[in-house]
TrEMBL record:
<feature type="domain" description="Aldehyde dehydrogenase">
    <location>
        <begin position="33"/>
        <end position="289"/>
    </location>
</feature>
<dbReference type="GO" id="GO:0008774">
    <property type="term" value="F:acetaldehyde dehydrogenase (acetylating) activity"/>
</dbReference>
<dbReference type="Pfam" id="PF00171">
    <property type="entry name" value="Aldedh"/>
</dbReference>
<dbReference type="InterPro" id="IPR016162">
    <property type="entry name" value="Ald_DH_N"/>
</dbReference>
<keyword id="KW-0520">NAD</keyword>
<dbReference type="InterPro" id="IPR016163">
    <property type="entry name" value="Ald_DH_C"/>
</dbReference>
<dbReference type="InterPro" id="IPR015590">
    <property type="entry name" value="Aldehyde_DH_dom"/>
</dbReference>
<keyword id="KW-0560">Oxidoreductase</keyword>
<dbReference type="InterPro" id="IPR016161">
    <property type="entry name" value="Ald_DH/histidinol_DH"/>
</dbReference>
<dbReference type="InterPro" id="IPR012408">
    <property type="entry name" value="Acetald_propionald_DH-rel"/>
</dbReference>
<protein>
    <submittedName>
        <fullName>Aldehyde Dehydrogenase</fullName>
    </submittedName>
</protein>
């Protein structure tokens, strides 16, 4: 058979998997049932799989160009709908996701050659990815995941959080429309009109969903792991921040305030507790106050704890609220100049320290020395393998902490968000796969690694 005849045959076999083209439906990726949405995304994947790499690049360029003017409105709507975080920081998160998520250049090919021939290792798509997005970073996760997963050649079914439904559906429809205008394929990015928890469960069980990418709390990640599918699980964290006596205290204070107050402490990577060597604790706190932190008295700390962490667990109504809103909720006077962050000196076993709380209130624990600081940080991070931050000029200690904590992200002498490419080197991601170990995800995370072997030479050495 001639090569051209073989190509025609292969195309025919592939196209037989495609359903006959239906009359144009213009759903903008939003369907009334999970089955319809997944089927449509599967059909879109089969068509997308036949496209060259330049089609993927064209879609990603168009997403970057066309979403840029919408980022500010998306940030505002996201803050308003979820009632969490603030539009200024959400804009920065959206922008980082749009500008700094890698595209197809992330899918590097590796080749091995020798007397036995040549081996190629390449990244291929999985198919339909079921992506669960959190309420804390709804639009930035959808932008980041869309670029990564489409770059890897997949189609996507999104399960947005019901609490961020309107803004998420609007964004999913916009991305699906952009992809359609770029390549003529509809339904590369889909969801359902009512993204309920039941819909998420149905999606997880759907046979045409090849892989799950879950960004959320421990419950939903654990649920995904029971599905029997491959899961890329991005779960909760509780990032400790260590400051030792060698640190540049002015820089440390500014970085910690910037990181811990970012989007009112909603990011899973944000500093959630500060562990400081006591010989420099007073100076550090003074510096933090000069950068806009409000130090609470022990009595105020107790009042705030009672409303924010009743029975030790975060009060959902106060997650992601501003420092002033937290003070008001605890009937504590709000200073004329609104604080950027609340801080309070507490014991190591305080629930402010031991629990992820996602509020702009940073508990501070004094320790006698670096060894005790590291031991406490290990306890607080509790093997989540998520994020830790450290300020120190002592390289051996920085190395020891990084090696011992084994977190997916370890930031040295910077704000936590430097770990996701904001003001630090490296690409941006809003899906940090912690329990499943992929770490900071990008296109290659959402691709199957394949090996292609030629036994008859092709080594030119
Ligand atoms: P969440 O677990 O409440 O929700 C996450 C997603 O899971 C949402 O889409 C939600 O609809 C879905 N979900 C939750 N419970 C469900 C159920 N019973 N049935 C079906 N679907 C369900 O989390 P959240 O409050 O939106 O986000 C905050 C959490 O996510 C924090 O713990 C944070 O650390 C974590 N997070 C982790 C990362 C990461 O990259 N590792 C990124 C962002 C957020």
């Amino acid at each position: 058979m001639k090569t051209s005849e073989l190509e025609t045959l292969i195309r025919r076999i592939l196209s037989e998997q495609l359903a006959p083209a239906k009359a144009e439906t213009k759903t903008h990726g939003i369907f009334s049932s999970v089955d319809e949405a997944v089927d449509a995304a599967h059909q879109a994947f089969l068509r997308y799989q036949q496209c060259p790499l330049k089609t993927r690049s064209a879609i990603i360029s168009a997403i970057r160009d066309e979403l840029a003017p919408q980022l500010s409105a998306l940030a505002e709507e996201s803050a308003a709908e979820t009632g969490m975080g603030n539009k200024e920081d959400k804009f920065l998160k959206n922008k980082a996701a749009l500008d700094n998520t890698p595209g197809i250049e992330d899918l590097t090919t590796t080749a091995l050659t020798g007397d036995g021939g040549m081996v190629l290792f390449e990244y291929s798509p999985f198919g339909v990815i079921g992506a669960v997005a959190p309420s804390t970073n709804p639009t930035e996760t959808i932008i980041n995941n869309s670029i990564s997963m489409l770059a890897a050649g997949n189609s996507i079914y999104f399960s947005p959080h019901p609490g961020a439904k309107a803004v998420s559906l609007k964004l999913i429809a916009a991305i699906d429309d952009i992809a359609f205008r770029s390549c003529g394929i509809r339904n590369l990015v889909v969801t359902v009109a009512e993204p309920t928890f039941e819909a998420t469960q149905q999606m997880m069980a759907h046979p045409k969903v090849a892989v799950l990418a879950i960004t959320g709390g421990p419950g939903i990640v654990a649920m995904g792991m029971k599905s029997g599918k491959k899961v890329i699980g991005a779960g909760a964290g509780n990032p400790p921040c260590i400051v030792d006596e060698t640190a540049d205290l002015v820089k440390a204070a500014e970085d910690i305030i910037n990181g811990a107050s970012f989007d009112y402490n909603l990011p899973c990577i944000a500093e959630k507790s500060l562990i400081v060597v006591e010989s420099v604790a007073g100076k550090l706190i003074q510096q933090m106050q000069s950068f806009g932190a409000l130090l609470l008295t022990p009595a105020e700390t107790d009042r705030l704890r009672a409303v924010c962490l009743p029975e030790g667990l975060a009060n959902k109504r106060l997650v992601g609220k501003s420092p002033s809103a937290l003070l008001e909720a605890a009937s504590i006077a709000v200073p004329a100049k609104a604080p950027r962050l609340l801080i309070a000196v507490v014991n190591a076993d305080d629930p402010w320290v031991t629990r992820e709380q996602l509020m702009p209130m940073l508990p501070v624990v004094y320790v006698p020395d670096f060894d005790r600081a590291l031991a406490l940080a290990l306890k607080v991070e509790e093997g989540l393998h998520h994020t830790a931050i450290m300020h120190s000029q002592n390289v051996s200690r920085l190395n020891l902490a990084a090696r011992s904590l084994q977190t997916s992200i370890f930031v040295k002498n910077g704000p936590s968000y430097a770990g996701i490419g904001v003001g630090g080197e490296g690409f941006t991601t809003f899906t940090i796969a912690t329990p499943t170990g992929e770490g900071t995800t990008s296109a290659r995370t959402f691709a199957r690694s394949r090996r292609c072997v030629l036994t008859t030479g092709f080594s030119i050495r």
